[in-house]
Amino acid sequence: MDGKDMQKERNEQYEERHELAVGRLRGIVTEETVPQKYVPYFQDTAIFLLELENVRRKVASGEWERYSLEEMKSLNEILYSGIIGERYASSYANPAYAAEKLGMDIGRLLSLLNAEMRSGIPCSFENRIDYLTILYELFIEVYNSFEGTSEEGAEKDTEESAAELAEQVRDIIYWYASDYCDVFLADRVMEQIDPDRSFAADIIEHADLESDRYLYRFGEYITENELGTARHLRSLPEDTIQRMADVYTEGYRIGFINTGKDLSKKSVVNIRYNLGFEKVIRAAIDNFRKMGLKPVIYRAASSVITKREHHKIGYYGAVANWQYEYDHRQDQALFMDKRYIERRLEVMRTVYEQHRGLAAQFAGPAVMETFGETPFSPKQVPEAPSYTDGQRELALKYDSRSGQLTNEYIKGEERSFTIVAYPVPEIGERYPEIFDEVIKINTLDAELYEKVQQTMIDALDQGEYVRVTGKGENHTDIRVQLHPLADPDKETKFENCVADVNIPVGEVFTSPVLEGTSGVLHVSRVYLEGLEYKDLELVFRDGMIEDYRCGNFADEEQGRRYIYDNILKNHSTLPLGEFAIGTNTTAYVAARKYGIENKMPILIAEKTGPHFAVGDTCYSWSEDIRVYNPSGKEIVAKDNSISLKRRIDVSKAYFNCHTDITVPYEELEEISVVTKEGKHIILLKDGKFVLPGTEVLNEPLKGFTHSKEEMKCQK
């Protein structure tokens, strides 16, 4: 049974329950059978759900397809209006506002409920009667629990009655999440491996991409970024579109070759991208099909049951409000316990086991990222749910065990990936220029970089450790211990990274020896996974983070919590999993030329200076696969003392995170490699490459210096 037939069958099974739920929602809009202070919340949320139902019916009947472009835009705005801009301040989706109006405990829970109802927006466009029915029934069940509340009683004993009611609501939400794991979470796993679940792929392959109308069919929030991207791609020659697709898919194919993995054993590729790039993705799908790969293109999760905090994994449109996403990133804290975690893992294992053969066909993700949006620095909202220490341990346990499960059925040694990035119009009025420049960056001469980087690796292979120091206000001073070589003629410490899995070209990287790796890593400003960090500092001792701080907040403790949540990923410490030297000076100059340094994605930014990744190594889950540089030498620096624990207890070997932090060239005093004999071989000095044979990397820098001098003269 294909995806459409299965969904039709599910809809039929839920049809009667669905109609009953819709009828009840209509009643809630007009009645006042709950205490007065809760009436606006329930009526507003019920109106929103009826709007979803209205959309679903129009989509199912075909009426929506007859809408004008302006009508589609208006509807899109209405669906997301509650969390956009200033409206969020007075929205029940805002935990601070909900807590103010409804009380802390109940406000938090009802804010979570409101957010969960918003996860139904895409269900309307996919005509998922089953999902919408479940959401409607959850809302109605919570409403019913308030109907039995005596307002007079609540006034007499406010705290006691509110606590009792909050506990009741918490139980309802808990059992919703637990009971429907085998629907939502099971479907989530299947969406990741089953190409028959083809909602997005069908739109991409068959819609009229010359019109803006198709973008509104996804059910995602659409802004000028998505519209402007689609329009710009329409303006490009078809051979440019094909070249962008070829770089993307060829990088994926070469990734399998370079790691000695057999792509012919696989039949499914996961495509992740941002809306607006459909012309490129359509060409990429065609390329992948010629490789024998069918696409799975799943939506970024928005339900509390399926999402991973505020991270967007899958396809999505614009983020309507990053603060909203951040406020709700740990909503599970309101109900998570050990039993719930075990339930999730049980469902995950069952689904993988039932579809073992399909999971084995999964080749890995091909990711097309975007950048250029205004950097987001979140506000710390005390009303927003956050994990207790015990829940953080449970969350880490889940990440670890779910990672092990995935690797059991989709083996790390058999899969690969690729990733590339392009700007969106929000990057500035010179967007078309910047876009062209990024195409140039993503298609640089890999052979030239391979040769130059090998020269650098030859020097690094002589070293016992690397020392990196900052200049000016940057106080980076760190020693990175390197793996020894048993046979220098056949072995190497660094991978020569050209444009395969990690596009664009421009880095050499290694997994450091943790013991002996110590010092301070500092960067004035960096943008990581959608979040901005100012004056970020990490202190390492024997390869592990010992201390950390940032300047985002006046309260230093808030800054520490920010790093703990989003860089350390709730771990007490993380190892230095990777050290790399970026060599892509063309990208560096482009960033400075257009003033977009703070908007460059880490994918490109990591190529514009040395970078340090905290978390797992680049070889996690596939350390035992033999990997060779183009020189023929085997890369032996793939493990550290943490990852080696997999041989005894795999749960202690991986952290399931890897975050790259780059120090830009202009903040560098020196990078040198120190031999066992104490000889210093200088690689970079004062932000320039000085090692003989690598000077060609300075050519873009010279041009940039010259242009800056010209600009001064013009002034």
Jot down its keywords:
715 residues, alpha+beta, 3 domains, eight-stranded antiparallel β-sheet, five-stranded antiparallel β-sheet, 24 helices, 19 strands, 16% strand, disordered C terminus
Describe this structure in words.
The protein is α+β, with helices and mostly antiparallel strands and 715 residues long. The chain folds into three domains: 177 residues, no CATH class; 211 residues, no CATH class; 270 residues, no CATH class. Helix content is 45%, strand content 16%. It is built from 24 helices and 19 strands. Strands 12-11-10-6-5-17-18-19 form an eight-stranded antiparallel beta sheet. Strand 17 and strand 18 form a beta hairpin. The C terminus is likely disordered.
